[in-house]
Amino acid sequence: MQTEFEFELPKGYVDANGDLHRQGTMRLATAADEILPMRDPRVQQNSGYLTIILLSRVITKLGTLSTINTRVIEGLFTMDLAYLQDMYQRINLSELPHYQVKCPHCEREFEVPLDFLLS
Predict the structure, then answer these.
(1) Going by C-beta distance under 8 Å and a sequence separation of 6 or more, which residues neighbour residue 77?
(2) What rounded mean pLDDT belongs to the chain?
C-alpha cells in the first residue's frame, strides 16, 4: 500500500532566502491528523485554518526545507494551496466504500459510493 505521494507545485514556495521549493512529498492522513487540529484555537476561531494545519501535518518534504509548519503553508501561493488541497482529497478519499443498492422502481442493482463529506 502506498502511503507517500510525490508532488510538484505549480508555482512553488519561496522561502526567506528567496529559494524556490517545488518538489515535495505528502503522506496519507491519519485519524489524529483530522481530529487533533480541531482543538487548535486558530481552527476554533476560523474553520478555514483547518486546511493549513492539516497540510502542515501531512506534507513531509518540500524542497530542501528542514521543517514544514503552518508558516510555510501560509506562505504558499493560492494556486499551490489549491493544488495541495486537491491532492489531499484525492489520495485520502480515493477508495471510498460502496454500498450495493437496488432501485425500488426498476429493481436494477448498482453501487453507490459513500461520501462522508456530503451532508
Answers:
(1) 11, 12, 13
(2) 90
**What's the CA gap between 91 and 66, in Å, rounded?**
24
**DSSP track, 79-104:** HHHHHHHHHHHHHHSTT--EEEEE-T
> pLDDT for 55-111, tens place per residue?
999 999 999 999 999 999 999 999 999 999 999 999 998 665 667 788 888 988 887
Its pTM surpasses 0.70: yes
Cell of 108: 436494477
Q: Which residue has the cell 502511503?
A: 3
Residue listed under C-alpha cell 505528502? 26
Angle of helix 78-92 versus helix 49-58 axis, rounded to 10: 70
Which position has the grid cell 460502496? 98
81: left (phi over 0), alpha (psi -120 to 50) or beta: alpha
